[in-house]
């Protein structure tokens, strides 16, 4: 087997050195009855050629050649080949968690740079070096608010990503958190008055996402005021991180839970991505997840090491802030390299292009008879349209033209049938938008 | 430099500041095509209150500077591609490059989780095939691929147990955890709503059976066991342990962190385990990448199947789909379907080996025992049994000269190796926990052994040399105390 | 070496009485075992604490230790200076690095704690165990 670096004679030689006369002796501790007496019934072995052929075959069964207008928490943005090439350097790809600082300075410095970039983007004071993804980051942010306030009531917007809310509910079930959902107004934003009324001294966190699942930016300052007013913390989720290139950062929030997929990570059918928690300095000891800090060695040279590790499970065991061990280091590194390439101007330009394309697409779609914008609130690169018939029917027609159309919201919001979520980014061309508009127009004319 | 250091030379590296320190206004490393739609005034489109100025302090650098920056700092890392990484319990094995290649294929990397199922049959087939392989390797009946990493797999496993026991009328109160366990086990149990009771190990490093029989009662939901345990020892009484638990209606959870010793050799499903997680970044070779991403699938017996996270992949007449309608499900633990990209790599690994996985396990155990044998005369071996995939020594002999496991570990760096795991498991005072994995040749093992023997000698003849190691790295031991007292967690201009 | 005007617990806290109030800290032995202290977490003023229950934590780089209440009572003052200078615990555990002041709910509780001589003997025994 090509991954195994031993010849049979070397194996026998090593076995003799151990003092065993046959290989079965290696497993003498395993009771006879529990040893597998047959080869595993699994496919393989395959050569490299065959492996590539196998996966090319699977790839061909997917969506290659289709134009997609899907977003909803996962975005198609341009990814530089430079970032991917650097990422695949063995020193990054095949290294372990940087506990041994002296031989992990590359990873540690990159983490430190990532933390800095995340603070700059979110307007927060500290950021951790990644959670599993946006959904678990949001959940961990809420659990953090629970620890900080000693309260268990959570007011969350119905417009937070439905799967993120599902994850939160799974974790809440056994921890005593009481999660209450609040609806949205005609703007698509959280119905603030209802939240204001519900706010009291039992509330640990007010939780929104901005842009929310409908692509609409939330009124963060007003929500921060409500949270502050009742001693709760404002948790803001962000699934479309590119929006921070142009949208006012939620600096007045107490905790940010962000998905960094938009920064150079492929959609990859749902993962792996990188979640981020950013917050105020005074909350750092209740923040889960890995942190790199700057320090010096005995000769005064600058270096970096993992720090505040006492928050983590390997030290605090059952009293840890979270059971999380791994982070998404390589994904965070991809985001770091991507953002360094984009830089200040590039990120701004990318964000502006997203706004321009979505404004254009919105206006074009509104020209179709019977199609209108569903919410009036400000949007970044995603928006909800209301159609005169079911989105499913429209999409069935669009697929014939190799277009994956708007996401039907009825799947998560039964009250929003005939509404579809449309996403355009800098990678969507004018021609593609035109094809979508024409396709929908045609689809609506197909006799039912 | 010592002539005993045969693997490492002087570490050549270039100095490099932080990326922010190279920034100058107007430079950029990525350009976009010209906008092909009319530009929009953001302040008008979004409303002035929703718009920000440029991101303060964001780097402005060119493409070549980015390439050099990350290339230079990368050389400051040790990596599997350089050599042996004997971190006990971490299973640092070779990460095949073809795995990286296939994960990046068009039609794999660009797939969106919400695209129609009809356009995702390839993705679903990958998931289904991997599930089937993991079922066979573990001897279990069902697998969920959703958990993002081992710790989340553990949580999923405990939530499954909780949901199952609840359906039997009583979720019960506590989870038993051996004192040799990973710290995640107790942390996870608490999040799943259970109290933790520690179980002491016996003189052979296994579970104290008499004690176990005494404490398992109707309040116990499960025992979380690592097998082989963190001493690298197979729990000989595993069949009995399962019986004791099952007799009282409790379940057996296995932390699959050490599955690399067992794949193709023995199956947890056959020795009484009800539910377990796997760390695909350990046993199934997906790269650690400096700390993640991982994937933590959970394999389970039939009785737990109805409680699996949604959605579940199902097959009807050759067509794959998702089943969301599972009323008993514990819910979701992560958005979408798991760390798909990691699952792709794990499948590529499994396909490369096929049933030959057995040979990998055998080589891993062979390497660990070879190292045990060749070092047991110079390092104290507190548990003198043959080991499985890893071996744990203690620093008690070297301690007499003031040299600790951490010092020996740091000195290994000078010899061209990554340190082993220090000070874990907690039941061995001053532990040296060594897991070579199957990826190491006899030559690499021999060099490691020579290095360890040489350090043992240095510990006796020149302890100061060991205590102040490493001597050849870019930076020496870092001041972690100041880093924790006055944390600097971001760059500031 | 341990001040004779204090009483001690098996968990290595000391308490110095002044009427019905007591000042609490950790002992020289405790700070030495812990190593460089990097962070201290103390209760809020007004918090009720009870004998044998943890009321705060002391952290080094790689360990967290709970601090247990030697007696029951109400916290009337905490040592705010430790927030910025946790290293004081290593430097002066029996003096400047006191942790909290308590108003005892039952001042006679103190009598059940070890005096300096008994504590000295207790840690001597402990040191013998670990070096064995």
Task: Summarize the topology.
The complex is a heterotrimer of chains A (448), B (493) and C (132).
Chain A: H1 8-18, H2 48-60, E1 67-68, H3 81-87, H4 90-93, H5 105-122, E2 126-127, H6 134-149, E3 153-157, H7 162-172, E4 178-182, H8 192-198, E5 203-209, H9 220-229, E6 233-238, E7 255-259, E8 275-279, E9 292-296, E10 302-306, H10 313-316, H11 329-366, E11 372-373, E12 382-386, H12 391-400, E13 403-404, E14 407-408, E15 419-423, H13 430-445
Parallel strand pairs in A: 1-13, 3-4, 3-5, 5-6, 6-7
Antiparallel strand pairs in A: 2-8, 7-8, 9-10, 11-12, 12-15, 14-15
Helix pairs in contact in A: 3-11, 5-11, 6-7, 11-13, 12-13
Chain B: H1 42-46, H2 63-74, H3 97-103, H4 121-138, E1 142-144, H5 150-167, E2 174-178, H6 184-191, E3 195-199, H7 209-215, E4 220-226, H8 238-247, E5 251-255, E6 275-277, E7 298-300, E8 312-316, E9 319-323, H9 340-353, H10 357-375, E10 391-394, H11 396-399, H12 405-414, E11 421-422, E12 431-434, H13 442-461, H14 463-467, H15 480-485
Parallel strand pairs in B: 2-3, 2-4, 4-5, 5-6
Antiparallel strand pairs in B: 1-7, 6-7, 8-9, 10-12, 11-12
Helix pairs in contact in B: 3-9, 4-9, 5-6, 10-13
Chain C: E1 6-8, E2 13-18, E3 21-26, H1 28-34, E4 37-41, E5 48-49, E6 54-60, E7 64-68, E8 73-78, H2 81-84, H3 88-91, E9 100-104, H4 116-131
Antiparallel strand pairs in C: 1-2, 2-3, 3-9, 4-6, 5-8, 6-7, 8-9
Walk me through what this model shows.
The complex is a heterotrimer of chains A (448), B (493) and C (132). With 448 residues, chain A is α/β, with parallel strands linked by helices. Chain A folds into two domains: 67-78 and 343-445, Alpha-Beta Complex (Aspartate Aminotransferase, domain 1); 81-338, Aspartate Aminotransferase, domain 2, CATH 3.40.640.10. Chain A contains 13 helices and 15 strands. In chain A, the strands form four sheets. A seven-stranded mixed sheet of chain A has the order 2-8-7-6-5-3-4, with helices on both faces. In chain A, a hairpin with an 8-residue loop joins strand 11 and strand 12 (382-386). In chain A, helix 6 (134-149) packs across helix 7, helix 11 packs across helix 13 (430-445) and helix 12 (391-400) crosses helix 13 (430-445). The longest helix of chain A is centred in the last third of the chain and has 38 residues, at 329-366. The model of chain A has no long low-confidence stretch (mean pLDDT 95). Chain B has three domains: 1-76, no CATH class; 101-355, Aspartate Aminotransferase, domain 2, CATH 3.40.640; 357-467, Aspartate Aminotransferase, domain 1, CATH 3.90.1150. In chain B, 33% of the residues lie in helices and 10% in strands. Chain B is built from 15 helices and twelve strands. In chain B, the strands form three sheets. Chain B has a seven-stranded mixed sheet with strand order 1-7-6-5-4-2-3, with helices on both faces. Helix content of chain C is 23%, strand content 34%. Chain C contains four helices and nine strands, in the order E-E-E-H-E-E-E-E-E-H-H-E-H. The longest helix of chain C has 16 residues, at 116-131. Chain C has one domain: RNA polymerase II/Efflux pump adaptor protein, barrel-sandwich hybrid domain (OB fold (Dihydrolipoamide Acetyltransferase, E2P)). In chain C, the strands form two sheets. A six-stranded antiparallel sheet of chain C has the order 1-2-3-9-8-5. In chain C, strands 4-6-7 form a three-stranded antiparallel sheet. Chain C is an alpha+beta fold and 132 residues long. Chains A and B meet through helix 1, helix 2, helix 3, helix 4 and helix 5 of A and helix 1, helix 2, helix 3, helix 4 and helix 5 of B.
